[in-house]
Amino acid sequence: MATETKEETPLIKHTGGCHCGLVRFDAMAPAVITVMDCDCSVCVKKQNRHFIVPNSKFKLLQGEDMLTCYTFNTHQAKHTFCKVCGVQSFYTPRSSPDCKGISPHCIDPGTIQGEIVEKFHGVNWEETFTAKGGYETFNKQ
């Protein structure tokens, strides 16, 4: 029996947004998502569990003018959040600058059928990133 690869996994449309509803997006990803659980300083503070989709599978529907951005350290990650309610429903991860990291808890109910959680030791970001395979590993759902 052949093993299904990520490329063969059917994608469905997930919709979501921030708490106040001013920021809305959709993203194409599997019904069972692979969620990164990072322990770097900002992810721990924000409880930033996320799944990654390429920018080509992400569409900001509304609220671009409502987003503001926080960066630190290397300034590679772009932590975008709603100016009104403060919720980060997605961001641009350092590991995948051509992708979005989407917060599963900001997806509207009904499309996520399950989560596979993968730990990422972000406290030692460079070592973990290299050990896990670099950019090719993190760019696809």
Could you provide a short overview of the structure?
With 141 residues, the chain is mostly beta strands. It has 3 helices and 10 strands.
Number of helices: 3
Give the overall average pLDDT. 86
Order of helices and strands: EEEHEEEEEEEHH
Arrangement of strands in the largest sheet: 1-2-5
Domain count: the total is 1
Question: Poorly predicted ranges (pLDDT <50, ≥5 residues)?
Answer: 1-6
Overall CATH architecture: Beta Complex
CATH class: Mainly Beta
Main sheet: strands, sense, barrel: 3 strands, antiparallel
Per CATH, what is the topology? Metal Binding Protein, Guanine Nucleotide Exchange Factor, Chain A
Q: Which geometry do the CA atoms define? A: globular
State the secondary-structure class: mainly beta
What is the count of β-strands? 10
- The share of residues in helices is 10-25%
Distance between the termini: 22 Å
Question: Rg to the nearest angstrom?
Answer: 15 Å
Q: Per DSSP, what share of the residues sits in E-state strands of 2 or more residues?
A: 25-35%
